[in-house]
Design goal:
CATH superfamily of the largest domain: Spore Coat Polysaccharide Biosynthesis Protein SpsA, Chain A
CATH class of the largest domain: Alpha Beta
Structural class: alpha/beta
CATH architecture of the largest domain: Alpha-Beta Complex
Largest sheet: 7 strands, mixed
Number of helices: 17
Distance between the termini: 54 Å
Radius of gyration: 26 Å
Shape: globular
Number of domains: 3
Number of strands: 24
Strand order of the largest sheet: 14-13-12-15-20-17-23
């Protein structure tokens, strides 16, 4: 039986991968090992070099750059070893180093992973353990303060010790732990997929270890050859994704604001990485199914559906609880009007995705409009190779005024995606689509007429506050001090930190109403905590 499967993704790494492969026999010692190399559509001949000079290496060649996480997962799935070694192409393991890592895991069966000391080519020790990113340490980092000093202290000595997260340049994992925790999250195209995996492992009760005695030389950065100036943008994209996955959209929004202050703007494409020309071919995927949910939306539906007339099909899902003429209005524009009992936004959206006939789905709310320029960009996006899903910025209109500050712009939402590219997370309100593939970004905005007047705002106010409280209740949150002070912070954050004052009176009103919403949500949570959680009514 194979002891260790060595998984090596490469992307334009021909200049370094040979040194790595040559070092493996001595590094593995007496281990029975196999090396599986995944070439992510390199253009420098790296795959051909491996095939010619290292015939013992199993080579998988992708016709597109699927990203570091996806390539590592491919290699892991193809391997048969009791242990998996995630190894960068720009590493040179010292003799016996990999055998010692396997020995450690043999003696510590509940360990999730172990990593060695990483040294730079000049002999200096590289920081190879990291704290879990939080809003605090990332703000300190963006301010220019060193947040890895404690990690460097923990790297001293020679004995193994548990750590928060390892740098995935060299990380050995028992296959049992890999299957329990799951593969690398492919939403992380490059960077932080290792940190995400380590955090998931710790949440499952397993420890991640750093052992300074085995050593591996790590060139550092050579794994990103070919990415050029996009490396920094890729890191920030992964960082925002990490916050979305582990802390929620609110924390991710704060991080985005901090990044904007530092001059970072989310790219629409990343050279050699996120561009539509390098993602998987959608073949006949130009057909777009526009999906609209409607519950008492007869006033908004006509303009919404008119803006979708270019789509190959329009699917309107009307709530069975609607008391207006939503279904009748929808049938003027499409034959595909489906009436269904309302089970909450997320469940209805996921069900609606299954009803779509096209390979692409555009999810639109009744109070949103697709402009001609956005239509053209969507057609271009789905016409050829491209990401599995796209975020679309929304232009937010409040009582007839477009708000450009206070967190209202660009208000990106993931609404265009392949039908099989993911599903909505189970939440009662403010549900989000979780894509399983790469995510790109469109430039043209979706127009969002959320509230035409104050009457409409307050009509939705109580219902949404109740649903938001229900979400908090189910996640274990209670009406503690943090919740009661949140309204004040919400106002300060929207109006001051995010510049809501720049939108004049509408910005002031919207910021104040946001604080009132948070207060209403907390009051409802307090009421539920008083012994009446069953009164939380679902949409």
């Amino acid at each position: 039986m194979t002891d260790v499967s060595i998984c090596i993704p490469i992307y334009n790494s021909a200049s370094v991968v040979a040194n790595c492969l040559c070092a493996l026999p001595e590094a593995c010692g007496g281990l029975r090992w196999e090396a599986i190399l995944v070439d992510n559509a390199s253009t420098d001949g790296g795959g051909r070099l491996v095939a010619a000079e290292f015939p013992q290496v199993r080579l998988i060649v992708n016709d597109e750059n699927k990203g570091f996480a996806a390539a590592s997962n491919q290699a892991a799935a193809a391997g048969h070893g009791r242990y998996l070694l995630l190894l960068n192409a720009d590493t040179v393991p010292a003799p016996g180093s990999l055998a010692r890592l396997a020995e450690f895991l043999e003696k510590n069966p509940r360990a999730a992973a172990v990593g060695p000391r990483l040294r730079r080519p000049d002999g200096r020790t590289q920081t190879s353990i990291h704290p879990i990113p939080t809003l605090r340490n990332q703000l300190l980092r963006l301010a220019g303060l060193n947040t890895t000093s404690l990690a460097r202290l923990r790297m001293r000595g020679h004995t193994p010790r548990p750590v928060a997260a390892l740098l995935g340049a060299c990380m050995m994992i028992p296959r049992e732990a890999w299957e329990e925790i799951g593969p690398l999250d492919e939403r992380f195209f490059f960077y932080l997929e290792d940190t995400d995996w380590c955090l998931r492992a710790r949440k499952r009760g397993r420890q991640v270890y750093y052992w300074p005695q085995p050593e591996v030389v790590h060139v550092g950065g050579a794994s990103a050859l070919g990415l050029g100036a996009e490396r920094k943008a890729l890191y920030y994209e992964s960082l925002v994704t990490f916050f979305e996955v582990h802390y929620g959209e609110r924390a991710a929004g704060r991080l985005r604001a901090a990044l904007r202050v530092r001059g970072y703007r989310p790219p629409t494409t990343s050279e050699g990485v996120v561009s539509r020309a390098e993602e998987s071919d959608c073949g006949s995927g130009a057909a777009v199914s526009a999906v609209v949910l409607a519950r008492d939306e007869e006033e908004d539906l006509p303009e919404c559906l008119e803006s979708l007339g270019w789509a190959h099909e329009i699917v309107v899902v009307v709530s069975a609880e609607s008391v207006d003429k939503s279904a009748e209005v929808a049938r003027r524009y499409t034959e595909r009007v489906l009436v269904r009992p309302w089970e909450g936004f997320a469940r209805v959206r996921n069900w609606a995705i299954e009803q779509a006939a096209g390979p692409w789905v555009l999810m639109v709310d009744a109070d949103e409009r697709v402009t001609p320029r956005l239509m053209d960009e969507i057609r271009e996006a789905v016409a050829g190779p491209g990401p599995a899903a796209y975020g679309i910025p929304r232009a937010f209109f409040f009582c007839g005024h477009q708000l450009r500050h206070g967190g209202c712009w660009p208000d990106e939402v993931l609404r265009l995606f392949r039908r099989d590219a993911g599903r909505y997370g189970e939440r009662h309100v403010h549900e989000r689509f979780h894509a399983t593939g790469r995510v790109g970004r469109l430039r043209e905005p979706l127009l969002h007429y959320a509230y035409r007047d104050m009457e409409e705002y307050f009509e939705k106010f109580s219902r949404y506050a109740e649903l938001a409280a229900q979400d908090l209740w189910e996640r274990g949150r209670r009406a503690r001090l943090r919740e009661w002070v949140s309204p004040g912070f919400t106002f300060f954050n929207r109006y001051v930190l995010k510049g809501g004052f720049l939108d004049g009176a509408p910005g002031l009103v919207y910021s104040a109403l946001g604080a009132a919403f948070v207060l209403a949500r907390t009051a409802r949570l307090w009421e539920m905590e008083g012994g009446r959680p069953e009164q939380g009514r679902h949409e």
